[in-house]
Amino acid sequence: MKILIVEDEPKTGDYLRQGLSEAGFVVDLVRTGPDGLHLGQTGDYDLLILDVMLPGLDGWQILQSLRSEGKDMPVLFLTARDQVEDRVRGLELGADDYLVKPFAFTELLARVRTLLRRSKSAQPQNTLQVADLELDLLRRRVSRAGRKIDLTAKEFALLELFMRRQGEVLPRALIASQVWDMNFDSDTNVVEVAVRRLRAKVDDAFEPKLIRTVRGMGYVLEAASSA
Questions:
Q1: In sequence order, which residues have a C-beta less than 8 Å from that of residue 18 and are 6 or more positions away?
Q2: For residue 96, which of 89, 120, 135, 227 sits 20 to 30 Å off, Cα-Cα?
Q3: Are 118 and 74 in contact (CB under 8 A)?
């Protein structure tokens, strides 16, 4: 397993490199933001350990760039920034974990191993299926009971969100954020309209109904509906 560390504090960086190397990992260490971004873009790493405050380019920018380019390696932020808003920002940008300095190496090692196990066990998923509803992620096709269903790009994204999180009640604010990349405005009915149109296509002509409203909470897609 190969790990990239982006850490500008020499003592911390050397400590991490030595400890992880002794634990059996292949470790590369760089000390600037641009170097970290370059290796993250071009190297084949199983995990990235990333500081926030770095010379040249901060950790937020590095992670945002890597995720926008489709790099899906697990990322662990290791930083002295311990405010709740910093942790939330890191996770929202696509980090998989967030550990605050000072830290115990045994805890860091446990988190590293957990992230690597999780990543290794994750299998590429080309299709999603709930009951007789099938969504093909590669060909961008949807069918139910063998019948093709034509969806707009937003409807496809909405259905994908529902199917990936089947059985979960999804609040309108979360749906607006994930599908439209917008803050939820209680004065707009964009979510309700989109869900209504999606239901008309994937539920109206079929049984059982899969998408239902949970009053005061949001929407859920599940095979066993009580509606």
A1: none
A2: 135
A3: yes
The beta strands (E) that lie in the chain are given as: 2-6, 26-30, 47-50, 75-79, 97-100, 127-130, 133-136, 141-144, 147-149, 211-214, 218-221
Q: How far is CA 89 from CA 15, 81, 183, in A?
A: 27, 11, 15
Amino acid letter, residue 2: K
**CA angle 210–213–216, rounded 5-degree value:** 155
- Using an 8 Å Cβ cutoff, are 50 and 96 in contact? no
The tens digit of pLDDT for each residue in 123-158 reads: 556 888 999 999 998 889 999 999 999 999 999 999
Return the exposure string of 38-57: e unless at least 16 CB atoms fall within 10 Å of the residue's CB, then b. Answer: ebbeeeebbbbbbbbebeeb
CA–CA dist 39, 24 (Å, integer): 21
pLDDT band at 188 (very low <50, low <70, confident <90, very high): confident
Closest CA to 17 of 130, 112, 98, 88: 112
Residues 6+ apart with CB under 8 A from 213: 195, 219
Domains of the chain (ranges, CATH numbers)? 2-121 (3.40.50.2300), 127-221 (1.10.10.10)
As to burial, measured by CB atoms within 10 angstroms (0-12 exposed, 13-18 middle, 19+ buried), residue 219 is buried
The residue among 59, 104, 58 whose CA lies nearest residue 77 is 59
